[in-house]
Amino acid sequence: MAAKSPTLLAATLIICFGAGFAPVRAQTFDVKQLEVKRGELEFGSSNTVHSGFPSSRESDVNRGAYEASLDYGATDWLRLSGVGKTAQAVGKDLKFNTVSLEALAVIRPTPTYGIGLGWFQSIDVAMNGDATNSTQFGAIVQFKADKLALTF
Predict the structure, then answer these.
(1) Which of 34, 81, 108, 111 could connect to 117 by a Cys-Cys bridge, CB 3.0–4.6 Å?
(2) Across the chain, what does the average pLDDT equal?
(3) What gap in Å lies between CA 50 and CA 31, rounded to an integer?
């Protein structure tokens, strides 16, 4: 298995550097990992501030986004989370936007060398008129080679 690690590392570097040159207009997001332990309680905080906006951009572009989460391992395969999300649009005050309920189910744990599978689902409830109710969901695939992990 050790011979495969350099190949995985090379592929990871190619993807990362290739993606680094593509122009994107996006906010940050949290990549969910397939690590769940029963009874584990975790507090998380994700804070971003964006700068360098051209003057022609609309005022609803976020200048800052802030999240606080509390995660709980209900079982060894299910993690439940509650998340509060705030944002500050360019030239506007900070607003409490949404409260989210999230669930991450591990379908196949990631072995030391191999592939793990999971499913993520969230429900966002709007807390003001500028936010919307929404849901996000999708598969999580994690490739692992010892201490190197690549998650999609």
Answers:
(1) 108
(2) 82
(3) 19
